[in-house]
Protein 1
Amino acid sequence: MAKVYVFDHPLIQHKLTYIRDKETGTKDFRELVDEVATLMAFEITRDMSLEEVEIETPIGLMKSKVLSGKKIGIIPILRAGIGMVDGILKLIPAAKVGHVGLYRDPKTLQPIEYYVKLPSDVEERDFIVIDPMLATGGSAIEAINSLKKRGATHIKFMCLVAAPEGVKALQDAHPDVDIYIAALDEKLNDHGYIVPGLGDAGDRLFGTK
Ligand code: URA
Protein backbone atom coordinates (compact mmCIF):
# COMPACT_ATOMS: atom_id res chain seq x y z
CA MET A 1 0.00 0.00 0.00
CA ALA A 2 1.25 3.45 -0.91
CA LYS A 3 2.50 5.56 1.99
CA VAL A 4 1.13 9.03 2.69
CA TYR A 5 3.52 11.70 3.98
CA VAL A 6 2.12 14.94 5.39
CA PHE A 7 4.77 17.67 5.42
CA ASP A 8 3.94 19.56 8.59
CA HIS A 9 7.08 21.72 8.58
CA PRO A 10 6.19 25.08 10.18
CA LEU A 11 7.24 27.07 7.11
CA ILE A 12 5.02 24.96 4.87
CA GLN A 13 2.07 25.26 7.25
CA HIS A 14 2.56 29.03 7.63
CA LYS A 15 2.66 29.63 3.88
CA LEU A 16 -0.26 27.28 3.30
CA THR A 17 -2.43 29.36 5.63
CA TYR A 18 -1.95 32.40 3.35
CA ILE A 19 -2.46 30.27 0.24
CA ARG A 20 -5.82 29.15 1.64
CA ASP A 21 -6.95 32.65 2.70
CA LYS A 22 -9.46 34.00 0.17
CA GLU A 23 -8.05 37.52 0.61
CA THR A 24 -4.71 36.43 -0.88
CA GLY A 25 -4.47 37.79 -4.43
CA THR A 26 -3.03 36.15 -7.55
CA LYS A 27 0.53 37.50 -7.21
CA ASP A 28 0.98 36.41 -3.60
CA PHE A 29 -0.85 33.12 -4.19
CA ARG A 30 1.50 32.28 -7.08
CA GLU A 31 4.61 33.20 -5.09
CA LEU A 32 3.50 31.21 -2.05
CA VAL A 33 2.69 28.11 -4.11
CA ASP A 34 6.14 28.40 -5.67
CA GLU A 35 7.79 28.66 -2.24
CA VAL A 36 5.85 25.72 -0.80
CA ALA A 37 6.73 23.62 -3.85
CA THR A 38 10.43 24.32 -3.17
CA LEU A 39 10.08 23.35 0.49
CA MET A 40 8.17 20.19 -0.43
CA ALA A 41 10.82 19.31 -3.04
CA PHE A 42 13.42 19.47 -0.26
CA GLU A 43 11.45 16.89 1.74
CA ILE A 44 10.45 14.64 -1.15
CA THR A 45 14.08 14.22 -2.26
CA ARG A 46 15.26 12.93 1.14
CA ASP A 47 15.58 9.37 -0.18
CA MET A 48 17.76 10.23 -3.19
CA SER A 49 20.75 7.92 -3.34
CA LEU A 50 24.33 9.10 -2.97
CA GLU A 51 27.74 7.80 -3.93
CA GLU A 52 31.20 8.71 -2.73
CA VAL A 53 33.67 10.51 -4.95
CA GLU A 54 37.16 11.64 -4.18
CA ILE A 55 37.83 15.37 -4.41
CA GLU A 56 40.60 17.68 -3.38
CA THR A 57 39.76 20.66 -1.21
CA PRO A 58 42.28 23.52 -0.95
CA ILE A 59 43.57 21.71 2.15
CA GLY A 60 43.63 18.09 1.12
CA LEU A 61 42.03 14.96 -0.35
CA MET A 62 38.68 13.73 0.90
CA LYS A 63 35.84 11.41 -0.03
CA SER A 64 32.55 13.25 -0.37
CA LYS A 65 29.04 12.43 -1.61
CA VAL A 66 27.20 13.30 -4.79
CA LEU A 67 23.82 12.19 -6.12
CA SER A 68 24.02 8.84 -7.85
CA GLY A 69 20.48 7.72 -8.52
CA LYS A 70 18.19 8.02 -11.48
CA LYS A 71 17.44 11.40 -12.96
CA ILE A 72 14.21 13.16 -12.10
CA GLY A 73 11.18 13.97 -14.26
CA ILE A 74 8.57 16.42 -13.06
CA ILE A 75 5.08 15.99 -14.46
CA PRO A 76 2.61 18.81 -13.78
CA ILE A 77 -1.02 17.93 -14.44
CA LEU A 78 -2.37 20.78 -16.57
CA ARG A 79 -3.10 23.40 -15.74
CA ALA A 80 -2.71 24.02 -11.99
CA GLY A 81 0.30 21.71 -11.67
CA ILE A 82 2.33 24.26 -13.66
CA GLY A 83 2.25 26.55 -10.62
CA MET A 84 4.51 24.14 -8.71
CA VAL A 85 7.12 23.45 -11.42
CA ASP A 86 9.49 26.39 -10.96
CA GLY A 87 9.60 25.91 -7.20
CA ILE A 88 10.80 22.32 -7.66
CA LEU A 89 13.27 23.27 -10.40
CA LYS A 90 14.98 25.64 -7.97
CA LEU A 91 16.24 22.57 -6.11
CA ILE A 92 16.46 20.13 -9.02
CA PRO A 93 17.41 22.38 -11.93
CA ALA A 94 18.44 19.53 -14.24
CA ALA A 95 15.07 17.77 -13.98
CA LYS A 96 13.13 17.34 -17.19
CA VAL A 97 9.52 18.47 -17.27
CA GLY A 98 6.77 16.52 -19.02
CA HIS A 99 3.11 17.54 -19.18
CA VAL A 100 -0.15 15.65 -18.90
CA GLY A 101 -3.43 17.32 -19.85
CA LEU A 102 -6.77 15.78 -19.00
CA TYR A 103 -10.39 16.81 -19.43
CA ARG A 104 -13.48 15.39 -17.84
CA ASP A 105 -15.88 13.61 -20.19
CA PRO A 106 -19.20 15.40 -19.57
CA LYS A 107 -21.17 12.14 -19.85
CA THR A 108 -19.04 9.66 -17.92
CA LEU A 109 -17.23 12.30 -15.77
CA GLN A 110 -14.10 10.24 -16.35
CA PRO A 111 -10.81 12.09 -17.03
CA ILE A 112 -9.64 11.68 -20.64
CA GLU A 113 -6.08 12.43 -21.72
CA TYR A 114 -5.80 15.18 -24.39
CA TYR A 115 -2.09 15.99 -24.16
CA VAL A 116 0.92 13.97 -23.02
CA LYS A 117 4.51 14.96 -23.63
CA LEU A 118 7.18 13.16 -21.61
CA PRO A 119 10.97 13.09 -21.59
CA SER A 120 12.19 10.48 -24.12
CA ASP A 121 14.06 8.42 -21.49
CA VAL A 122 10.95 7.55 -19.45
CA GLU A 123 12.27 4.22 -18.19
CA GLU A 124 15.38 5.84 -16.76
CA ARG A 125 13.73 8.53 -14.64
CA ASP A 126 12.09 8.84 -11.25
CA PHE A 127 8.93 10.89 -11.69
CA ILE A 128 7.17 13.37 -9.43
CA VAL A 129 3.60 14.00 -10.60
CA ILE A 130 2.34 17.32 -9.27
CA ASP A 131 -1.05 18.95 -8.88
CA PRO A 132 -1.91 21.40 -6.07
CA MET A 133 -5.16 19.55 -5.26
CA LEU A 134 -5.92 15.85 -4.80
CA ALA A 135 -9.73 15.93 -4.78
CA THR A 136 -11.52 12.85 -6.19
CA GLY A 137 -8.18 11.45 -7.33
CA GLY A 138 -9.47 10.98 -10.89
CA SER A 139 -6.90 13.22 -12.59
CA ALA A 140 -3.97 11.92 -10.54
CA ILE A 141 -4.94 8.30 -11.25
CA GLU A 142 -5.30 8.95 -14.99
CA ALA A 143 -2.08 10.99 -15.20
CA ILE A 144 -0.18 8.16 -13.52
CA ASN A 145 -1.86 5.66 -15.87
CA SER A 146 -0.55 7.76 -18.77
CA LEU A 147 3.00 7.62 -17.39
CA LYS A 148 2.92 3.90 -16.63
CA LYS A 149 1.52 3.15 -20.11
CA ARG A 150 4.62 4.81 -21.54
CA GLY A 151 7.07 2.88 -19.39
CA ALA A 152 7.47 4.88 -16.14
CA THR A 153 8.10 2.65 -13.15
CA HIS A 154 9.10 4.95 -10.27
CA ILE A 155 6.47 7.57 -9.53
CA LYS A 156 5.66 9.83 -6.56
CA PHE A 157 2.63 12.10 -6.32
CA MET A 158 2.89 15.52 -4.64
CA CYS A 159 0.14 18.04 -3.90
CA LEU A 160 -0.63 20.87 -1.52
CA VAL A 161 -4.05 19.86 -0.22
CA ALA A 162 -5.70 16.44 -0.35
CA ALA A 163 -9.15 15.11 0.49
CA PRO A 164 -9.35 11.70 2.19
CA GLU A 165 -11.50 10.46 -0.72
CA GLY A 166 -8.74 11.29 -3.22
CA VAL A 167 -5.99 9.76 -1.10
CA LYS A 168 -7.92 6.49 -0.82
CA ALA A 169 -8.79 6.38 -4.53
CA LEU A 170 -5.16 7.02 -5.51
CA GLN A 171 -3.84 4.44 -3.03
CA ASP A 172 -6.30 1.84 -4.35
CA ALA A 173 -5.48 2.54 -8.01
CA HIS A 174 -1.71 2.89 -7.61
CA PRO A 175 -0.48 1.14 -4.44
CA ASP A 176 3.12 1.64 -5.59
CA VAL A 177 2.89 5.47 -5.73
CA ASP A 178 3.66 7.24 -2.46
CA ILE A 179 1.71 10.44 -1.80
CA TYR A 180 3.28 13.64 -0.43
CA ILE A 181 0.95 16.37 0.80
CA ALA A 182 1.12 19.60 2.79
CA ALA A 183 -2.33 19.16 4.36
CA LEU A 184 -5.03 16.51 4.58
CA ASP A 185 -8.42 18.24 4.69
CA GLU A 186 -11.87 17.08 5.84
CA LYS A 187 -13.79 16.04 2.74
CA LEU A 188 -15.10 16.89 -0.71
CA ASN A 189 -18.25 18.95 -1.17
CA ASP A 190 -21.01 18.14 -3.68
CA HIS A 191 -19.19 20.10 -6.40
CA GLY A 192 -15.96 18.16 -5.97
CA TYR A 193 -14.15 20.97 -4.10
CA ILE A 194 -11.99 20.19 -1.11
CA VAL A 195 -13.38 21.48 2.22
CA PRO A 196 -12.01 23.78 3.55
CA GLY A 197 -9.37 23.63 0.77
CA LEU A 198 -8.35 26.80 -1.03
CA GLY A 199 -10.90 27.08 -3.84
CA ASP A 200 -10.00 26.53 -7.48
CA ALA A 201 -6.22 26.31 -7.57
CA GLY A 202 -5.98 26.97 -11.32
CA ASP A 203 -8.15 30.08 -11.19
CA ARG A 204 -6.29 31.44 -8.19
CA LEU A 205 -2.89 30.79 -9.78
CA PHE A 206 -3.70 32.28 -13.14
CA GLY A 207 -6.19 34.96 -12.11
CA THR A 208 -9.04 33.45 -14.12
CA LYS A 209 -12.62 32.74 -13.08
N1 URA B 1 -9.51 21.36 -7.80
C1 URA B 1 -9.33 22.58 -7.23
O1 URA B 1 -8.71 23.46 -7.82
N2 URA B 1 -9.85 22.80 -6.01
C2 URA B 1 -10.52 21.85 -5.32
O2 URA B 1 -10.95 22.11 -4.20
C3 URA B 1 -10.69 20.59 -5.95
C4 URA B 1 -10.18 20.38 -7.18
Protein 2
Amino acid sequence: MIDVINLEKKFDNGFTALKSVNFTIEKGDLICLLGPSGCGKSTILNLIAGLLTPTSGDIKFSGSSIIHTAPKNRDIGFVFQNYALYPHMTVLENVLFPLTVGQNKISKAEAMPIVEEYMHLTNIEDLRDKKPGTLSGGQQQRVAITRALVQKPDILLLDEPLSNLDARLRLRIREEIRKLVKQVGITAVFVTHDQEEALSISDKIILMNEGIVQQYALPQELYLEP
Ligand code: ADP
Ligand code: ADP
Protein backbone atom coordinates (compact mmCIF):
# COMPACT_ATOMS: atom_id res chain seq x y z
CA MET A 1 0.00 0.00 0.00
CA ILE A 2 2.74 2.49 1.01
CA ASP A 3 6.33 2.00 -0.17
CA VAL A 4 8.98 4.34 1.19
CA ILE A 5 12.19 3.93 -0.81
CA ASN A 6 15.60 5.41 0.07
CA LEU A 7 13.85 8.47 1.44
CA GLU A 8 16.13 11.32 2.41
CA LYS A 9 15.24 14.77 3.78
CA LYS A 10 17.79 17.50 4.19
CA PHE A 11 16.35 20.82 5.36
CA ASP A 12 17.41 24.19 3.95
CA ASN A 13 19.62 24.84 6.98
CA GLY A 14 21.70 21.79 6.02
CA PHE A 15 20.31 19.46 8.70
CA THR A 16 19.60 15.91 7.47
CA ALA A 17 16.49 14.71 9.31
CA LEU A 18 16.08 11.45 7.34
CA LYS A 19 18.90 9.30 5.97
CA SER A 20 17.80 6.68 3.43
CA VAL A 21 14.60 5.44 5.08
CA ASN A 22 12.98 2.29 3.66
CA PHE A 23 9.78 0.49 4.65
CA THR A 24 6.59 -1.00 3.23
CA ILE A 25 3.19 -0.75 4.87
CA GLU A 26 0.54 -3.34 3.98
CA LYS A 27 -3.04 -2.34 3.27
CA GLY A 28 -5.20 -2.27 6.40
CA ASP A 29 -2.28 -2.21 8.84
CA LEU A 30 -2.00 0.19 11.76
CA ILE A 31 1.69 1.07 11.96
CA CYS A 32 3.37 3.13 14.66
CA LEU A 33 6.38 5.28 13.95
CA LEU A 34 8.09 5.20 17.34
CA GLY A 35 11.18 7.06 18.50
CA PRO A 36 12.47 9.96 20.58
CA SER A 37 11.59 13.56 19.84
CA GLY A 38 13.54 14.84 16.84
CA CYS A 39 14.22 11.43 15.22
CA GLY A 40 12.24 12.31 12.09
CA LYS A 41 8.77 10.83 12.67
CA SER A 42 6.79 13.97 11.76
CA THR A 43 9.06 14.55 8.78
CA ILE A 44 8.05 11.14 7.40
CA LEU A 45 4.33 11.87 7.87
CA ASN A 46 4.71 15.28 6.25
CA LEU A 47 6.51 13.71 3.29
CA ILE A 48 3.77 11.07 2.89
CA ALA A 49 1.12 13.81 3.08
CA GLY A 50 3.01 16.03 0.62
CA LEU A 51 3.51 18.88 3.09
CA LEU A 52 7.28 18.50 2.54
CA THR A 53 9.28 17.51 -0.56
CA PRO A 54 11.96 14.82 -0.23
CA THR A 55 15.59 15.58 -1.03
CA SER A 56 15.85 12.16 -2.69
CA GLY A 57 14.05 8.82 -2.72
CA ASP A 58 10.48 7.91 -3.53
CA ILE A 59 7.09 7.25 -1.95
CA LYS A 60 4.58 4.98 -3.70
CA PHE A 61 0.92 4.36 -3.01
CA SER A 62 -0.24 1.04 -4.49
CA GLY A 63 2.83 0.95 -6.71
CA SER A 64 2.64 4.48 -8.15
CA SER A 65 4.97 7.29 -7.15
CA ILE A 66 3.10 10.17 -5.50
CA ILE A 67 6.07 12.51 -5.07
CA HIS A 68 4.68 14.85 -7.73
CA THR A 69 1.02 14.48 -6.68
CA ALA A 70 -0.45 17.54 -4.94
CA PRO A 71 -1.32 16.97 -1.26
CA LYS A 72 -5.06 17.35 -1.87
CA ASN A 73 -4.96 14.56 -4.50
CA ARG A 74 -3.17 12.03 -2.28
CA ASP A 75 -6.28 10.53 -0.69
CA ILE A 76 -5.03 11.02 2.85
CA GLY A 77 -6.64 12.01 6.14
CA PHE A 78 -4.41 13.84 8.62
CA VAL A 79 -5.01 14.11 12.36
CA PHE A 80 -2.81 16.55 14.25
CA GLN A 81 -1.68 16.80 17.85
CA ASN A 82 -3.51 20.12 18.31
CA TYR A 83 -6.77 18.96 16.58
CA ALA A 84 -6.68 21.89 14.08
CA LEU A 85 -10.48 22.31 14.00
CA TYR A 86 -12.13 25.41 12.53
CA PRO A 87 -13.00 27.41 15.67
CA HIS A 88 -15.87 29.43 14.16
CA MET A 89 -17.71 26.36 12.86
CA THR A 90 -19.85 23.91 14.80
CA VAL A 91 -18.86 20.26 15.11
CA LEU A 92 -21.28 19.33 12.33
CA GLU A 93 -19.92 22.08 10.06
CA ASN A 94 -16.33 21.01 10.78
CA VAL A 95 -17.05 17.41 9.74
CA LEU A 96 -19.20 18.42 6.75
CA PHE A 97 -16.74 21.00 5.42
CA PRO A 98 -14.19 18.78 3.63
CA LEU A 99 -16.95 17.00 1.70
CA THR A 100 -18.48 20.18 0.35
CA VAL A 101 -15.36 21.89 -1.06
CA GLY A 102 -12.78 21.10 -3.75
CA GLN A 103 -12.81 19.01 -6.90
CA ASN A 104 -14.86 16.09 -5.61
CA LYS A 105 -17.35 18.14 -3.64
CA ILE A 106 -20.86 16.82 -3.10
CA SER A 107 -24.04 18.60 -2.04
CA LYS A 108 -24.94 18.99 1.62
CA ALA A 109 -27.88 16.64 1.07
CA GLU A 110 -25.55 13.95 -0.27
CA ALA A 111 -22.96 14.57 2.44
CA MET A 112 -25.27 14.46 5.46
CA PRO A 113 -25.85 10.67 5.56
CA ILE A 114 -22.09 10.06 5.41
CA VAL A 115 -21.45 12.64 8.11
CA GLU A 116 -24.16 11.15 10.32
CA GLU A 117 -22.81 7.62 9.85
CA TYR A 118 -19.29 8.63 10.92
CA MET A 119 -20.45 10.88 13.77
CA HIS A 120 -22.33 7.85 15.07
CA LEU A 121 -19.20 5.65 14.76
CA THR A 122 -17.11 8.12 16.77
CA ASN A 123 -19.91 8.90 19.20
CA ILE A 124 -20.01 12.67 18.69
CA GLU A 125 -23.66 13.00 17.56
CA ASP A 126 -24.61 14.87 20.73
CA LEU A 127 -21.93 17.50 20.07
CA ARG A 128 -23.12 18.48 16.60
CA ASP A 129 -24.14 22.08 17.37
CA LYS A 130 -21.25 22.93 19.69
CA LYS A 131 -18.19 24.99 18.84
CA PRO A 132 -14.76 23.30 19.26
CA GLY A 133 -13.74 25.79 21.97
CA THR A 134 -16.44 24.44 24.28
CA LEU A 135 -15.32 20.80 23.97
CA SER A 136 -12.84 18.73 25.99
CA GLY A 137 -9.59 17.60 24.37
CA GLY A 138 -10.89 14.07 23.86
CA GLN A 139 -14.07 15.36 22.22
CA GLN A 140 -12.09 17.67 19.94
CA GLN A 141 -9.83 14.82 18.86
CA ARG A 142 -12.89 12.65 18.10
CA VAL A 143 -14.20 15.46 15.89
CA ALA A 144 -10.81 15.78 14.14
CA ILE A 145 -10.70 12.01 13.51
CA THR A 146 -14.26 12.07 12.18
CA ARG A 147 -13.41 14.95 9.86
CA ALA A 148 -10.43 12.98 8.51
CA LEU A 149 -12.49 9.81 7.98
CA VAL A 150 -15.62 11.18 6.24
CA GLN A 151 -13.53 11.78 3.13
CA LYS A 152 -12.96 7.99 3.05
CA PRO A 153 -9.22 8.34 2.43
CA ASP A 154 -7.07 5.27 1.69
CA ILE A 155 -4.59 6.33 4.35
CA LEU A 156 -4.97 7.93 7.77
CA LEU A 157 -1.97 9.76 9.24
CA LEU A 158 -1.99 10.60 12.95
CA ASP A 159 0.76 12.79 14.43
CA GLU A 160 0.92 12.32 18.22
CA PRO A 161 -2.90 12.54 18.35
CA LEU A 162 -3.11 11.72 22.06
CA SER A 163 -0.34 13.85 23.51
CA ASN A 164 -2.59 16.74 24.57
CA LEU A 165 -4.98 14.43 26.43
CA ASP A 166 -4.79 13.42 30.08
CA ALA A 167 -3.57 9.92 30.92
CA ARG A 168 -7.00 8.35 31.39
CA LEU A 169 -8.40 9.76 28.17
CA ARG A 170 -5.25 8.75 26.30
CA LEU A 171 -5.93 5.10 27.04
CA ARG A 172 -9.55 5.38 26.00
CA ILE A 173 -9.08 7.30 22.77
CA ARG A 174 -6.23 5.05 21.63
CA GLU A 175 -8.50 2.01 21.98
CA GLU A 176 -11.20 3.88 20.07
CA ILE A 177 -8.73 4.76 17.31
CA ARG A 178 -7.61 1.14 16.94
CA LYS A 179 -11.20 -0.10 16.83
CA LEU A 180 -12.21 2.55 14.31
CA VAL A 181 -9.23 1.91 12.02
CA LYS A 182 -10.07 -1.81 11.93
CA GLN A 183 -13.81 -1.19 11.49
CA VAL A 184 -13.29 1.21 8.57
CA GLY A 185 -10.47 -0.93 7.13
CA ILE A 186 -8.14 1.99 6.56
CA THR A 187 -4.31 1.91 6.43
CA ALA A 188 -3.04 4.03 9.33
CA VAL A 189 0.33 5.49 10.32
CA PHE A 190 0.43 6.69 13.92
CA VAL A 191 3.34 8.76 15.27
CA THR A 192 4.25 8.51 18.93
CA HIS A 193 7.27 8.75 21.22
CA ASP A 194 5.45 6.59 23.82
CA GLN A 195 6.63 2.97 23.77
CA GLU A 196 3.72 1.60 25.73
CA GLU A 197 1.25 3.36 23.43
CA ALA A 198 2.96 1.93 20.32
CA LEU A 199 3.09 -1.59 21.78
CA SER A 200 -0.60 -1.51 22.70
CA ILE A 201 -2.15 -0.34 19.43
CA SER A 202 0.12 -1.30 16.50
CA ASP A 203 0.08 -4.19 14.11
CA LYS A 204 3.74 -3.39 13.51
CA ILE A 205 6.21 -0.83 14.84
CA ILE A 206 8.82 1.16 12.94
CA LEU A 207 11.42 2.13 15.53
CA MET A 208 13.44 5.18 14.49
CA ASN A 209 16.47 6.98 15.82
CA GLU A 210 18.30 9.99 14.37
CA GLY A 211 16.76 9.75 10.93
CA ILE A 212 17.12 6.03 10.35
CA VAL A 213 14.88 2.98 10.80
CA GLN A 214 16.41 0.82 13.52
CA GLN A 215 13.79 -1.94 13.58
CA TYR A 216 10.55 -2.84 11.83
CA ALA A 217 8.87 -5.52 13.92
CA LEU A 218 5.71 -6.95 15.40
CA PRO A 219 5.10 -5.44 18.87
CA GLN A 220 5.93 -8.74 20.58
CA GLU A 221 9.16 -9.07 18.59
CA LEU A 222 10.47 -5.54 19.05
CA TYR A 223 13.80 -5.45 20.87
CA LEU A 224 13.87 -2.61 23.38
CA GLU A 225 16.99 -1.56 25.27
CA PRO A 226 16.63 -2.49 28.93
P1 ADP B 1 9.94 14.02 15.46
O1 ADP B 1 8.62 14.08 14.80
O2 ADP B 1 10.52 12.63 15.53
O3 ADP B 1 9.95 14.70 16.80
P2 ADP B 1 10.73 15.80 13.35
O4 ADP B 1 10.48 14.97 12.13
O5 ADP B 1 9.73 16.84 13.71
O6 ADP B 1 11.00 14.82 14.57
O7 ADP B 1 12.14 16.51 13.20
C1 ADP B 1 13.31 15.78 12.90
C2 ADP B 1 14.50 16.70 13.03
O8 ADP B 1 14.46 17.64 11.97
C3 ADP B 1 14.53 17.50 14.31
O9 ADP B 1 15.86 17.60 14.73
C4 ADP B 1 13.97 18.86 13.90
O10 ADP B 1 14.47 19.89 14.72
C5 ADP B 1 14.48 18.97 12.48
N1 ADP B 1 13.60 19.79 11.64
C6 ADP B 1 12.27 19.65 11.47
N2 ADP B 1 11.79 20.56 10.63
C7 ADP B 1 12.85 21.31 10.26
C8 ADP B 1 13.02 22.44 9.41
N3 ADP B 1 11.98 22.96 8.76
N4 ADP B 1 14.24 22.94 9.27
C9 ADP B 1 15.29 22.40 9.92
N5 ADP B 1 15.22 21.34 10.74
C10 ADP B 1 14.02 20.82 10.91
P1 ADP C 1 6.79 18.18 16.73
O1 ADP C 1 5.40 18.49 17.15
O2 ADP C 1 6.86 17.06 15.75
O3 ADP C 1 7.78 18.01 17.85
P2 ADP C 1 8.12 20.66 16.37
O4 ADP C 1 7.38 21.39 17.43
O5 ADP C 1 9.51 20.18 16.61
O6 ADP C 1 7.24 19.44 15.88
O7 ADP C 1 8.16 21.53 15.05
C1 ADP C 1 7.10 22.38 14.69
C2 ADP C 1 7.39 22.97 13.32
O8 ADP C 1 8.66 23.60 13.29
C3 ADP C 1 7.43 21.94 12.22
O9 ADP C 1 6.77 22.46 11.08
C4 ADP C 1 8.88 21.70 11.94
O10 ADP C 1 9.09 21.36 10.58
C5 ADP C 1 9.50 23.05 12.27
N1 ADP C 1 10.84 22.86 12.84
C6 ADP C 1 11.21 21.98 13.77
N2 ADP C 1 12.53 22.07 14.04
C7 ADP C 1 12.99 23.05 13.23
C8 ADP C 1 14.29 23.63 13.04
N3 ADP C 1 15.37 23.20 13.69
N4 ADP C 1 14.39 24.64 12.16
C9 ADP C 1 13.32 25.06 11.50
N5 ADP C 1 12.07 24.55 11.63
C10 ADP C 1 11.92 23.57 12.49
